[in-house]
């Protein structure tokens, strides 16, 4: 692993506790919060040759504010899992419509509740996708506890 350097571009919105993943050659970031509180916005930048990022754009947002969320991508769809505004984390996931891409743009028509209910409200967790499965590990229910639970879901 080589050293990291700040990119030549910056996101339109400052964020912490956000989700990020790559979809069809675009870096996608979603949710998180800044000094104004939790957000529900999504931004993307095209990954150009050599790993340089293009200009950031906003293809819309999802239904609920999600600080401490994770973003996973599968089969052309993006999903935000859990998160919210501490201590009121969510127990649901949002799903984008199937992404449409051109050489320079990424578009989601809208975001909807994905229909999954995890039974526990959590945020600040880890998440990964493998084949047809999503895994969500650890996190917190209130920012005062740490969980050892691992959830498995099928997308």
Please provide a written account of the structure.
The protein is an all-beta fold and 155 residues long. 0% of the residues lie in helices and 45% in strands. It has no helices and 17 strands. The chain has strands at residues 19-23, 26-30, 33-34, 37-38, 41-46, 57-61, 70-74, 77-81, 84-85, 88-89, 92-96, 100-101, 106-107, 111-117, 126-130, 133-137, 150-154. It has a four-stranded antiparallel beta sheet with strand order 1-2-5-6, with no helix packed on it. A hairpin with a 2-residue loop joins strand 7 (70-74) and strand 8 (77-81). The protein is globular. The model has no long low-confidence stretch (mean pLDDT 87).
Question: Can you give keywords for this protein?
Answer:
mainly beta; 155 residues; globular; 4-stranded antiparallel beta sheet; 0% helix; 17 strands
Quick summary of this structure?
The protein has 155 residues and is mainly β. The protein has no helices and 17 strands. Helices cover 0% and strands 45% of the residues.
Global outline: globular
According to DSSP, the number of beta strands is: 17
First and last CA, distance = 31 Å
- Assembly type of the chains comes to single chain
Largest sheet: 4 strands, antiparallel
Strand order of the main beta sheet, please? 1-2-5-6
């Amino acid at each position: 692993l080589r050293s990291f350097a700040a990119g030549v571009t910056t996101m339109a919105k400052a964020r912490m506790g956000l989700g990020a993943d790559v979809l069809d050659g675009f870096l996608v970031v979603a949710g998180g919060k800044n000094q104004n509180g939790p957000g529900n916005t999504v931004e993307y930048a095209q990954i150009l040759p050599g790993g340089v990022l293009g200009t950031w754009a906003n293809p819309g947002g999802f239904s609920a504010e999600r600080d401490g969320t994770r973003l996973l991508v599968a089969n052309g769809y993006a999903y935000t899992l859990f998160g919210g505004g501490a201590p009121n984390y969510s127990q649901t996931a949002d799903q984008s419509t199937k992404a449409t891409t051109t050489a320079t743009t990424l578009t989601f028509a809208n975001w909807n509740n994905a229909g999954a209910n995890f039974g526990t409200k959590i945020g600040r967790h880890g998440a990964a996708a493998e084949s047809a499965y999503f895994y969500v590990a650890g996190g917190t229910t209130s920012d005062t506890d740490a969980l050892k639970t691992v959830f498995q879901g099928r997308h």
